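User: Hey, quick favor. My workstation is busy. Could you predict this chain's structure for me?
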Amino acid sequence: MAQTSTKRTKKARERDLVHGSLPAHFKALAIPAGIGMLFNTLYNVVDTFFAGMISTDAQAGLSVSFTVFFILIAFGIGLGQGISALVGSAIGANRNKVGNDTASDDEKQTQTTEHSSEDITSPKDIAAPKDISAPKDISAQGLSFATLFSFLLCLAGYYAIPHLLDLLGVYNGYRTLAHDYLILILFAAPAFMIAFAANGILSAQGDTVTNRNALIGGFLANCLLNPLFIFGAFGIPGLGFDGLAISTVIIEWFVAFYLLSHALKSRAMAQTRLSCFIPHLKIIKDIVAQGAPASLNFLTITVGVFVIQYFLQPFGATAVAAYGIALRIEQLVLLPGLGLTIVLLPIIAQNYGAKELDRVRYAFWWCVLTGIGMMLVGTVLLLLGGKFLLGLFTPDQDVISVGFDYLILAAPMLPAYLTLFAMMSFFQGIKRPIWTVWIGIYRQIFASAGFAALFIYILNWNEWGVWTAVFASVWSGLLLSTIILIIVARKSIQGLGGPGVLRVYES
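Assistant: No problem, here it is.
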C-alpha cells in the first residue's frame, strides 16, 4: 500500500502540459513554484535579518557577498533551465508521437477540426525539433555534468573571489566578512549545482511541488541554524557572521539529496541505468548549448549588480546596505509573477516540442497579462508600505530613507520586469536562448553603466542617479526585448499574435 501511495503522489506531481486547460496548468504549477520562491526569498531575508543583529557592516558584507555568490547561482539556474527546456521538449515530442500513433480516427478528425478553427498558422508548417534524445538520457547527462562542473567552479572560485571583491571596489571594513563568507559557501557549490539540475528534470515534467517542499524545509532549517551557529548554544560556539555561511552549506546539501532522490524516481528517469551517467559528448553539448545562454543571461544580471554596487561604493555602507535590503523586498513582491514566468518555460517547451503552437501563443499572453495584473498590486504595495517593510530589517533611519528612494522607482518597474521574464522563458522554451544573453548584456551592462555615469557624474544626482539608472535600463531593455521577440516569433512560430489570441483560443 505504501508503494502504491507513493506512486500516486509522484503521478499527481507530474503533469501532461500538452493537453488540458492551460490556466489550470499555470495555477497547478505556479502556486507551488511561487510558494517555493517565497520561502527561498524568505531564506535570504532571514540571513539579512540576523546579519542586521550583528552590525550594519555585516549587512553590507552580506549584500556584497550575494553579488559574487550570484555567479554560482547563475551557472546553476542556467543548467537547470537548459535541462528543463530539453527534457520538456523531448517529453512533448514523445507524447505527440505516441498520440499520433495511437489516436483513433474520430480523435484525429476532432483534432483536425480544432486546429482548423483555432490555428493562427498550422503547426505542420513548422519543422519538428530534430535529433531529440530520450528524456532519461538528457536527465542523466545533466546530473553528471552538474557534478563535474561544480568541482571546477569550486577551484575557480577559490582563486577568483579576492579579484571579484577588488572589481567591486570593496576595500573597507566589511571586505573580510564578505571574503570569508564566500570561501565557506564554496563547500556547497556541488550541492547547488546538483539541486538545480534535479529541479530542472522535475519542473520539465510539471512537478514544482517537490522543489517547493525542499525550499520550505530549507527556510525552516535556516531559522533554527542561523541563531545556533551565529550566537552558539547547546555546546556549539558562536561563530558570528561565518555562522550564516555554515548554515547554508549544511542546508543546501540536504536539499540537493532530497531533490536528487525525487528526480531519480521520476518518469523522465524511468529505466535509467548507470551507463546513462557516463559522459556523452553530444548530449552534454546540447545541454551546454541550451544552458550556457541562460547562465550568461544571469551572469549579466550579476554584472549588472556589480555595476550598481560599484557606483554605490562612494556613498558608503549605508547606501550599500539600503540597496541590499530594498532588493530583498522587491524580490518578495515580484514572487507571484516570477512563479508564473518560471512555469511558462516547461509549458512552452512541451507544447513547442509537440508542435501545439496555439497553446504556445496562449500560454505566453495569459502569463503576461495575468502577471502584469499581479505586479500592479505590488506597485501599490511598495509605494504605500515600503518604509514599513524596510523598518522590519533595520532600525537605521538613514538606511530606511535611502532604501525607500530606491523602492519609489522600483514600484513602476515591476510590470516591466514581469514582461521581460516572460520573454526570457519564451526564448528558452522554443530553444532560442541566445537572445536572452544579448538583451541581458545591453540592459545589465551597457545601459546600467551608461545611465549611471550620466546621472551621477554629469547630472550629480548622487544615490538617485543609481536608482534612476536602474529604472532607465529596465524600460529601455523591455523596448529592445519587444522588438527581438516580434522578429524571433515570426521566424520560429510564425508570430505570437496579440492578447486577442486568448479570446480566439478560448472560443
